Amino acid sequence: MCGRYASFTDAQSLADDLALAEVAEDARLLGPRWNVAPTDDVRIVVERPRREPAPDGGTTAGEITRSMQVARWGLVPSWAKDPGIGPRMINARRETLLEKSAFARPLAVRRCLVPADGYYEWRRLAAAPAVRKVPKQAYWIHPDPGQVTAFAGLYEFWRDPARPDGDPARWLVSTTIVTTAASGGLERIHDRMPVSLPRESWDAWLDPAVGAEQAHALLDAPVAPLHTRPVGPRVGNVRFDDPALLEPDDDPRDPELVLL
């Protein structure tokens, strides 16, 4: 799974790298994060029709525009009774995307990129028989220095039935990160990893005209190798959110470090 990641590259640099036409104000104001956790607001990249003023005073769909928006991490399906289901849907398994009702429709029409500077995973370690709690080693997993990875994501709109039509907070935008079987040595840390889409797949993944099965095939594209670094246990606490979380663990618990 992917349960923690970092996204600290500034919005303008991401806009240049991802060829964005627009950055929503709330996305621009979202500060750097070194410990993003489920239910947090996160930045996503989408391609949707621009809303244009209509003669009747409403809006109409304009040209398709690539933009950065804000979504809550933890997908809430449109049919959900309440948003409480979100924390259980922070990840969507690649193997069952076409089958699960919560993910099949977003896969067809609402795909996004989740920009990240890297993510964290915990390796379960062997424990002595008398030890109750299984010891774990936290790892920071990241692309080459200066590079940003783009996780394959899905997003959804949920309408709060308790709010009136004129309430701007009546719509909740939420997102999930697609995961797959770990490979490239990362399986030694955990059996799952987020899908990092290569740059050449970004356009097709975001294109609303690309169908679900064609989009699903993009998830099998090879990606650049990722690197690992053992880090301290502070990352396991959501109260800590600072650059020091990325520093190497001076006293790692893992006797067989996975260094890639």
TrEMBL record:
S-adenosyl-L-methionine among keywords: no
Keywords assigned by UniProt, alphabetized: Covalent protein-DNA linkage, DNA damage, DNA-binding, Hydrolase, Lyase, Protease
Chain segments carrying region Disordered: 231-260
E.C. code: 3.4.-.-
Family, as annotated: Belongs to the SOS response-associated peptidase family.
Protein's name according to its UniProt entry: Abasic site processing protein
Organism (species): Isoptericola chiayiensis
